[in-house]
Amino acid sequence: MAPMKVYGWAVSPWMARALVCLEEAGVEYEIVPMSRCGGDHRRPEHLARNPFGEIPVLEDGDLTLYQSRAIARYVLRKYKPELVKEGDLEGSAMVDVWMEVEAHNIEATLWPIIRHCIIGQYVGRDRDQAVIDENLEKLRRLLPVYEARLSVCKYLAGDDITAADLCHFGFMRYFMATEYAGVVDAFPHVKAWWDALLARPSVQKVMAGMPPDFGYASGNIP
Amino acid sequence: MATSAVKVYGWAISPFVSRALLALEEAGVDYELVPMSRQAGDHHRPEHLARNPFGKVPVLEDGDLTLFESHAIARHVLRKHKPELLGTGNLEQAALVDVWFEVEAHQLSPLAIAIVVECIFTPFLGRERNQAVVDENVEKLKKVLEVYEARLSKSKYLAGDFLSVADLSHFTIMHCFMATEYAALVDALPHVSAWWEGLAARPAAKKVAEFMPVGTAGASKKHD
């Protein structure tokens, strides 16, 4: 069977979401590298794969998928259904709840901080401390909820790791490389949860392709 | 009659709360809507935070299970009662449902919601409409809708030739959007327009539309 293909740049936190799930699935896959600064995602051949012109895109035989969480669900449902609690009505509902919490709260809050603290300096954008502070405030209101949750169960959807936890990885990776990691570290159960994620071989493997500066300083501009 | 085992907490005029109600209507499940007041700050009260620590609506109680996030609620209700609407049992179909369910949430709705907030809800928020925000989101929405038009030219519904939660998930936000003057964006696209008409004609959609009286200003002539 031909290996799955994932199109995109490995430093992307959205790409990381897909890659972590592929690693957890233990399935053979190949990354087809694309250049963001070269505008590969806007070329016709990519728009034919994803008309929204974004990455990652997964090809599995004749099936072409986009939207990183849809890719995550597909890969895990196919190869590691326990990671989406397939067949378990209550379990899968909890996975869905915390995937949505991440989608609507975490990504939206961490990405502006990451853009201003890490990326801005390389792309000629002045750091906007007001944006950073506004999002840190939101994060400071979210983290106590995570802390309370992770005080009653080991992972977000219950006592087993699931897609809900894995989907947090990419954005957390970069946020924890900013000077504001202490905001998370102040919450012991959240910190322990993050450390447990970091210890997973799948996460280690994907992190190896995600330098904390997105590759800008070394000239590997995404 | 016994109280329903299924309760939804929130204000039904919210397209998020009504997304949950639509899933229940499509599933044919008995439920009770427990009305809450946004203005009175019911969602910040301890009894609500005990249900949803993020202090948002909707919340679904289904027996012992308490869920929040409207997309998660919709998935649960349909997984339990109408799994075919998730493409369950067919990996490829389920994947395409997931793709378009995500597209609704992350490509279309943020734009449509921004337009709806400015055009319909600013009086309730005590501020003036920000036309620059509307214009910026209308431009982006035009491009997104072109992708939908291309997709719906190839298949009857978003995930394929079968109706799914991906289609249904659009109804409540589009119901609000179609009450703005920008409904013309949809009317201009024959396949999107026909798909929208089909969604809005469903009995469950008509029922839920009654919970969201956002007015008919700007509604398409086709709706008369």
From TrEMBL, chain A:
Q: Which UniProt keywords apply?
A: Transferase
Domain named GST N-terminal is located at 2-83
Q: Name one GO cellular component term.
A: cytoplasm
Q: Which EC class does it fall in?
A: transferase
Give the record's GO biological process terms: glutathione metabolic process; response to herbicide
What the entry lists under SUPFAM superfamilies is as follows: GST C-terminal domain-like, Thioredoxin-like
- Reaction(s) catalysed by this chain's protein: RX + glutathione = an S-substituted glutathione + a halide anion + H(+)
Give residue ranges for domain GST C-terminal. 88-214
- Which GO molecular function entries does the Swiss-Prot or TrEMBL record give? glutathione binding; glutathione transferase activity
| Superkingdom of origin | Eukaryota
Task: State its Enzyme Commission number(s).
Answer: 2.5.1.18
- Similarity-based family: Belongs to the GST superfamily. Phi family.
Q: Which PANTHER family match?
A: GLUTATHIONE S-TRANSFERASE RHO, GLUTATHIONE TRANSFERASE
Q: What is this protein called?
A: glutathione transferase
UniProtKB/TrEMBL annotation, chain B:
Which top EC class is named for this enzyme in its record?
transferase
Give any Gene Ontology cellular component: cytoplasm
Entry annotated with the keyword Ubl conjugation: no
**Looking at the record's lineage, which domain of life comes first?**
Eukaryota
Record-given protein name: glutathione transferase
**GST N-terminal domain sequence ranges:** 4-85
- Please name the Pfam families in this protein's record: GST_C, GST_N
**Keywords, in A-Z order:** Transferase
